[in-house]
Amino acid sequence: LVFSTRGVIFGASYADMHAKLPAQWILLAVVLICMGVFVVSVLRRNLRWPLYSIGGWIVAAIIVGGIFPAVVQRFQVEPNELARERPYIEYNIQFTREAFALDRVEEQPFPAEEAPSLQDVAQNEVTINNIRLWDSRPLKDTYNHVQSIRLYYDFHDVDTDRYIIDGEYRQVMLSARELSAERLPVQAQTWVNRKLQFTHGYGLALSPVNEVTAEGLPVLLVKDIPPVGDFNVERPEIYFGEKTNDY
Predict the structure, then answer these.
(1) Which helix (H) or strand (E) holds 214?
(2) What is the pTM of this model?
(3) TM segments (predicted)?
(4) 140 and 159 in contact (C-beta within 8 Å)?
(5) Is 73 helix (H, G, I), strand (E, B) or coil?
(6) Pick from 59, 53, 57: which is nearest to 41 by CA?
(7) pLDDT single digits (tens) 97-150
(8) Which of 96, 72, 76, 75 is nearest to 11 (CA)?
(9) What is the rounded average pLDDT for all residues in the chain?
(10) For a tag on the chain, would you pick the N or C end, based on fewer CB atoms within 10 A?
(11) How far is CA 175 from CA 147, 188, 202, 211, in A?
């Protein structure tokens, strides 16, 4: 019963405790009776009684072990499931907390100052210099506007990563220039184009998380086709990307 998945939680539920468990005891009693019938049958040399007992056990297993718990679940538990299952949900939460030692967690006040001190700024210079200002949604639109370059390329989403740039650990935002063959004109949507000609994306756009140009655009550290910038992209081809799923 501890591995039961009948209820809303993993483990014994209302139907298990009030139907399945009694059914197990009833079936145990039926088995003992069948064993007694077998012994008596051997002594009296009667072969019919064992067959009757086996048939009775099968019927009891179907009705008591299968149908009865299902009926209790359907007509007693489901119409008022929260009330019926509440104790077992509480048991599940309680012992899950104990298993992960969450019941022994101590809460301690943490006084936080609204404004960082000069010492805080000095001690966390790398973190402060990498605070993200760009939102991924307008940045993706900007990448698509200035860096998609070809009609059939698309920046699917923008991710955040970290690299060593000029000896400093920098947080950057980047997006792969993926193939978007559905953007081709209808007359170009041929098997040859989709399977042989336009087969992969190419390169990426990469920019710091908190820098802009005088025009309000991202400062691109990697851009264009072929890729140029602060990083050497040895293999810019993207055959298996988030949108490259034709094969």
Answers:
(1) none
(2) 0.54
(3) 23-43, 50-72
(4) no
(5) helix
(6) 53
(7) 999 999 899 999 988 777 878 888 888 888 888 999 999 999 999 999 999 999
(8) 96
(9) 89
(10) C
(11) 10, 26, 11, 16
